[in-house]
Amino acid sequence: MSDIKEKVRQYLISGDYLFAKKDRHPVDREKLKKDIYKGIDHVISFDRSTLSAEEKEKIVSDLMDEMLGFGPLSSLLDDPNVTEVMVNGPDTVYIEKNGVMLLTDIRFDNQRHLMQTIEKLLAPTQRRVDESSPYVDASLADGSRVNIILPPLSLLGPVVTIRKFSREILAMEDLIKRDTLTNKMAQFLIAAIKAKLNIIFAGATGVGKTTTLNVLSSYIGEGERIVTIEDTAELRLKQKHVVPLEARQSNVEGKGEVQIRDLFKNSLRMRPDRIILGEIRGAEALDMLQAISSGHDGALAVLHASSPRDVISRIETMIITSNTSIPLWAIRRQISNAVDIIVLQEQLSDGKRKMTHITEVGGMDNDDVVLRDLFSYEIKGVSEEHKSVVGQWRIGGVVPAFYSTFRLRGIDLPEDIFREE
Fold this sequence. Notes:
The chain is α/β, with parallel strands linked by helices and about 425 residues long. It has 3 domains: about 1-70, no CATH class; about 70-165, 2-Layer Sandwich (Beta-Lactamase); about 170-420, Rossmann fold (3-Layer(aba) Sandwich). The protein has 14 helices and 15 strands. The strands form 2 sheets. Strands 9-8-10-11-7-12-13-14-15 form a 9-stranded mixed sheet, sandwiched between helices. It has a 6-stranded antiparallel sheet with strand order 3-2-1-6-5-4. Helix 10 (about 260-265) runs parallel beside helix 11. The chain starts with a helix and ends in a 13-residue tail after the last helix.
């Protein structure tokens, strides 16, 4: 049956169904269905083979999914409980579902089938992956992020990783319901956004940093001009006056690359009220600190780090390795002057995602950056019955040095929010 399906697939591809999304002409479902049946009849007649009614319907169902969606991955992308899809070659597909990693029974017919699905994923994105450029990042139409890496860099065959955009976390109430943070923490962060404090959202891959940034960005005023800068577009801001900028890969001749740092420098000439960096990765860290120090308040950025202290270390390393001659003490002083808050998120051992630290960057002490936890999550153990992490949030009991900024900008935030009840 797989041989017949492959021949019908090639019959359909010759009819340009694979790239329907790229060409922006809608596919008529009924016509496609008729064409699949026609292709099946053509193949079995030519091969003088036979198919049962069930086998024929299975081929029709599989190819409808493939031509209208993303083949074997369609059901996973439609499942709201699946947060990540990991394809390790044509025979192995893992998912993360409800915070737990699972091996599925989904398979591709062969490597060519997987490559055709990859082409379908990339068709609307204007990005490519091939022997000359064997890995790529891209975004699907719904905001889900895709990473693809091909042989010979991958020894398993083509590897596809899809981090799905959450359709269920759209407002702060959704994060609170999922126990990602408390009401007080949410109240504080909303006030921090409105007061144009500079915030870094930190954590490991897949812990929800960008989702949280998306939620909080909705509290930026409609009267502000927002410039977003990303390697691969993931942010989905609701305001009307948003200018999204996206980095560009080099072409086949190795020319035309535009890096995050180039876009950041250009954004400063675009009269931004807010600059949002999808991820700090390198030399743009210094540009960001200098821009904030010169008056560009309200900056939001994402950074991979394992703790608030690690955020400081990573920024220091990025600046030091960018061929700058600035001494370490001066870098630390710039960090302490520019960054107001670090928000750290983690995925706990039971799969749940928590905002484990909201930390004030509070000046300098003996050439070290001072960090003070305003809110933190303390893990007490793991429940033997449910295997869930047991813990509680703590309030640091310290009023941050920037508290006066709330009053100066007309934000009503009670001081007792920083005290335990």
